[in-house]
Amino acid sequence: MHALFVATANAHKVGELRSLLGPGFLVLSLRDTNARIDVVESAESFAGNALLKAVAWAAYLGADTCGLGAGWVLADDSGLEVDALDGAPGVLSARFAALDSGVPGNSPDAANNAKLLRLLAETPDERRTARFRCVLALVPVQPGASAADLAAQARFFEGSCPGRIRREATGSAGFGYDPLFVPEGHHQSFAELGDDTKNRLSHRAKAVEAFRRHWARA
Ligand code: IMP
Fold it and tell me: Per the residue annotation, which of 76, 77, 109, 178 is the catalytic one?
């Protein structure tokens, strides 16, 4: 059993990663520690932000006082890229609505979805193409290693899921933009299709698949 610490405060992401990784991994998360590290996601790419989160948590877990037992940190940074919006919201997916209100931090999913629908109100169906993207950064927990040492050892795994943005939110499964996102080859949103189907098609599923191939070789 390999102990992996999943560096995200998003319980939905932890749930999906746990299902996708399967029984060979002991998935630890923020629920298993009282620590709260406020990582400012200031990078301009998914990989950059995943690295910031992975290194911050690996440094914390490597400190003598922690003792959680995780050997590795896996950080997920992900988001939605909409072609008609030149790739927005992209790395700003979690705080899309807050960009207008000036309220710091992430926005409620409903506010992000409402903003997306508003911006696409005049966009015809054939131009509503989009993709979810996910980058996982894997960093070892090494007591005494500097942040630069940890970052130098990072490995990245990517996944992308093409689809389109529908005109109204439908379904109740999943999180984030799932009620608006219809994956290619389907007519229902991720939130209608449910966890099993999402976990076969999603950006996160593909990134985990790449991680698993790496892990099997390593
Ligand atoms: P992060 O925690 O900074 O990576 O923000 C990710 C944001 O992208 C989430 O808050 C969601 O708004 C969106 N997102 C990422 N993955 C998914 C997904 O699988 N379904 C729906 N929305 C997602």
Answer: 77
